[in-house]
């Protein structure tokens, strides 16, 4: 199988869209990610996957903390900014939950301390111990087969 076939197959799994954020020396850094999942309830753990070539890898290692912000359906532009899909500069406002930066309006803000990091293939998996959660009402932004989507209500 070639790389394109593998990517196309992985794209058939519909996911939510997150922005992972961290802060180093007073500067906030973020990246769009859909490689996120819960790991454990006791203790509360999540995992994110960061490419070895991503600048976020070094930043998360430096800070030892990160947030996972599950984006609302109307936050597509934020996803595009942090995925590098928009070339013109846009300022993004962050809030803090505890001392960790989060995206205002995200339907879930999850802050974490890095518990352990595992290098697997061309990515590092960061296991994060959840330190705080804030939830908002709203519909999630969905990503499927290379396109942004919204949930359709069957009610």
TrEMBL record:
The keyword Flavoprotein does not apply. Residues 10-150 form the Flavin reductase like domain. SMART domains: Flavin_Reduct. SUPFAM superfamilies: FMN-binding split barrel. GO terms for biological process: pyrimidine nucleobase catabolic process. One of its GO terms (molecular function) is riboflavin reductase (NADPH) activity. Keywords: Oxidoreductase. Coiled coil: none annotated. The keyword Oxidoreductase applies. It comes from the Bacteria. This is Flavin reductase. The lineage of its organism: Bacteria, Bacillati, Bacillota, Bacilli, Bacillales.
């Amino acid at each position: 199988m070639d790389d394109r076939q593998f990517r196309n197959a992985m794209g058939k799994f519909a996911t939510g869209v997150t922005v992972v954020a961290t802060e180093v020396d007073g500067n906030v850094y973020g990246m769009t990610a859909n490689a996120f999942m819960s790991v454990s309830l006791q203790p509360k753990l999540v995992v994110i996957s960061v490419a070895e070539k991503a600048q976020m890898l070094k930043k998360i290692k430096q800070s030892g903390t990160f947030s996972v912000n599950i984006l609302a359906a109307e936050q597509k532009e934020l996803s595009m900014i942090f995925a590098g899909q928009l070339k013109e500069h846009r300022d993004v406002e962050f809030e803090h939950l505890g001392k960790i930066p989060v995206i205002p309006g995200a339907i879930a803000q999850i802050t974490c301390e890095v518990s352990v990091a595992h290098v697997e293939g061309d990515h590092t998996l960061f296991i994060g111990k959840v330190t705080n959660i804030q939830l908002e009402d709203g519909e999630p932004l969905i990503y499927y087969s290379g396109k942004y989507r919204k949930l359709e209500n069957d009610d």
